[in-house]
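Dear colleague,

Following up on Tuesday's group meeting, I ran the structure prediction for the two-component complex that the binding team flagged. I've pasted the input sequences exactly as they went in, so you can double-check that nothing got truncated or mislabelled along the way. The structure tokens for the whole assembly follow below. Feel free to forward this to whoever is handling the docking comparison.

Inputs:
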Amino acid sequence: MKPVGFVRSPFRDTSEIPKGCGAKHDADGVLEILPELEEGLTDVEGFSHLFVIWVFDRSEHVALLGTPPSDDRPHGVFATRSPYRPNPIGLTVVQLLRREGHRLHVRGLDMLDGTPILDVKPYLSGVPQESVRRGWLEEAERKRGGAPSPPGS
Amino acid sequence: MKPVGFVRSPFRDTSEIPKGCGAKHDADGVLEILPELEEGLTDVEGFSHLFVIWVFDRSEHVALLGTPPSDDRPHGVFATRSPYRPNPIGLTVVQLLRREGHRLHVRGLDMLDGTPILDVKPYLSGVPQESVRRGWLEEAERKRGGAPSPPGS
């Protein structure tokens, strides 16, 4: 696995990234794909949203159980978006604003500046929201009276 | 990157996996997570859907441009779900039917039996379908009169 590009985002430190119940991810930035891979972006501009698969490159350990910012109880790492994963892979849905050659201008970033990108895929369709159950997160939101988390969070 | 588990699916050959416009992914199977990682699945059963990040382990080359089964024109690899990616990573949304210890029984598989799993994440929310534009795929569907692709395809 080698980076296909890097994220240019306004976030220099994880403390700057909105987290927890009702956190809004609307930061703008750029997915800088390697120039030699630009041909792979052909026709990507027709899609409104993209999946970005990336590396938590500044995450230094693994924790199978952890207490996320949105709750006061621990949950399994595969039931959360914790960075302390067996494979430090992140997944974010972004809105594609425009393409300039090998640069994709996007909205909805929640990654640090300089984050390595492993893959970009078109977002084709979602699960109807009425079919989605969100386990512990729904309970935590009810307890706190927080708004539901936004798409991609 | 090491597998956190393996897919048990009915598909032994890529020719058996439904592809192209209107393909339905409703195959049942199991995500067998490594027993030593079972603690990481704590509370996952509360979620109706999961993202599965996996490896196209039988994909042998990279093609920056390719013609997908749903169209007769070539598109960039980052605008398709082609297996011939710079990093051979796949992403599938599955419905979680039930958990049995370190085994997740799921519906909606489109991976070959034995596929290595890199990560499992909870599906929290999608982009409202009315906001999603799907570029070349919409055009191809219109031309063929096919049904829109189902979630996760």
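The CA atoms of residues 118 and 142 of chain B lie 35 Å apart.

Cheers,
M.
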